């Protein structure tokens, strides 16, 4: 036990991700490795009733930020949006995220 908060373990099946919507949010071109599989919640562990947030597409360095999905446990419905990167050190989540920064959480 590290005493650090744990990362959320929620995931969204890649097959449920609407790739056409993701491309419309930020036009490509995209390479096959640009999609995160599986889509994992990147936030500190939180109640299941709260929204989960995970990267679905990695953007190149010319396009700051990433394409993120937001979903709730138990349904495949999700929102897709381009979010700016968190500006705190090497945090790999999005600007304004709730909870701890990515370097502060314990990963399985």
Characteristics:
two-stranded antiparallel ribbon, single chain, 21% strand, 3-stranded antiparallel β-sheet, 108 residues, mainly beta, globular
Write a structural description.
The protein has 108 residues and is mainly beta. It is built from one helix and five strands. A hairpin with a 7-residue loop joins strand 3 and strand 4.
Over the alpha carbons, how many angstroms does the gyration radius reach? 14 Å
Portion in strands: 15-25%
DSSP summary: helix tally: 1
Q: Would you list the SSEs in sequence order as H and E? A: EHEEEE
Strand order of the largest sheet: 3-4-5
Could you report the average pLDDT, rounded to the nearest whole number?
A: 83
* SS elements, strand count: 5
- Biggest β-sheet description: 3 strands, antiparallel
Low-confidence stretches: none
Describe this structure in a few short sentences:
The protein is mainly beta. It has one helix and five strands; from the N terminus they run βαββββ.
